[in-house]
């Protein structure tokens, strides 16, 4: 009789599975503190109910997922394994309508410029 732990059958559904990089689920991120900060910048005297905050958080997570998936698809089409700011920018232009896309691209470009200039 073999010693040690018994070997698990690889086809057994209760067997521990190795994590694969593809299809990795990310934890649903919370942007609530960031949404609150932006609200206070735009309307300092306005509040938001927890239900409204939850809806806004879901909205931001949904847009984040859509942009990330589109950028990933664009990188795969161009046979790249890394998503750069260029893929993100193109994904934003494809997903967001007209003026909203223009504002998002300009704010994103400004943020990337600020980040690169701060890295010495």
Map the helices and strands:
Blueprint: H1 32-42, H2 50-77, H3 85-95, H4 98-118
Q: How many DSSP-defined strands?
A: 0
| SSE run | HHHH
Large-scale geometry = globular
Radius of gyration: 21 Å
At the first level of CATH, what is the class?
A: Mainly Alpha
Number of helices: 4
Question: Which ranges are low-confidence, i.e. pLDDT below 50, for 5 or more consecutive residues?
Answer: none
Give the integer mean of the pLDDT values.
87
Reported by name, the CATH topology is Histone, subunit A
| CATH A-level architecture | Orthogonal Bundle
Q: How many separate domains?
A: 1
Could you give me the name of the CATH homologous superfamily? Histone, subunit A
Query: Percentage of helical residues?
Result: 55-70%
Structural class: mainly alpha
Strand percentage lies at under 5%
End-to-end Cα distance: 63 Å
Characterize the main sheet.
Answer: none
Describe what you observe in this structure:
Helix 2 (50-77) packs across helix 3 (85-95) and helix 3 (85-95) runs antiparallel to helix 4 (98-118). The chain has helices spanning 32-42, 50-77, 85-95, 98-118. It has a single domain (32-118), classed as Orthogonal Bundle (Histone, subunit A). Helices cover 59% and strands 0% of the residues. It contains four helices and no strands. The protein has 120 residues and is mostly helical. This is Histone H2B. Residues 1-32 are annotated as: Disordered. It comes from Oikopleura dioica (Tunicate). Residues 14-94 form the Core Histone H2A/H2B/H3 domain.
